[in-house]
Here is the input.
Amino acid sequence: MLDEFRDQAGPFYEEEETYEEVKPRRPRSKTYLGMTAAQRFVIAVLFLFVVCLLGAMLLLVTERVIPPF
Here is the structure.
């Protein structure tokens, strides 16, 4: 039924071709949160150091480990 309407429309009916604009992609930067890989590594090492220090302090406070002196 719809095909007949399209055929009857003839020259009045034209399919419009739409072209979408392709947006240029931003180049991916090599930073995360504004830090380079070396800066992130230093932050990770410092975080590891703090966690180890807090763990050792917790063991001393709860007297699970007693210093030899």
